[in-house]
Amino acid sequence: MKRTGIAFILSVALFLPASLLFSQSASAKRPPELDHMTVHVRDLQKSSEFYEKVMGLEKIPDPFKDKKHNWYRMGPHEQLHVVAGATEAVPHEIDVHFAFRVSSVPDFMAHLDHMQVKYQNLKGDGKVTLRPDGVNQIYLQDPDGYWIEVNDDKF
Questions:
Q1: CATH number at residue 55
Q2: For the chain, give me the number of helices (H) and strands (E)?
């Protein structure tokens, strides 16, 4: 083999790993994105009705097909997995919650009032919390006591 051929092969062998490392590190710098959340529930039917009727989430196919899982769309790529099998309700603090954005908190409150679902502000002494940035928030609990924030953040 000629010297130029050997030099070319050596240069490719030396620079290829560096280029692969660079391409991997660029994608590794992308932060993780939310994929799904799971709530472990005592009564799958009751919880599923809550997430469908009260929260208005769209049920999507789940791959387990074992009658212990129901999956819901929470955004373009985000999901909520409702999984049966909890034996008791575990107390949850309001500070540990997940949140949904709606276009109108007052309209959502009217929906909750119609459904006779209780809600409150963050401190529990009123209906709506107004954050310093102008976002309105309300808080409610699902049948197993998981706290849910609903707000009108424009993001």
A1: 3.10.180.10
A2: 3, 8
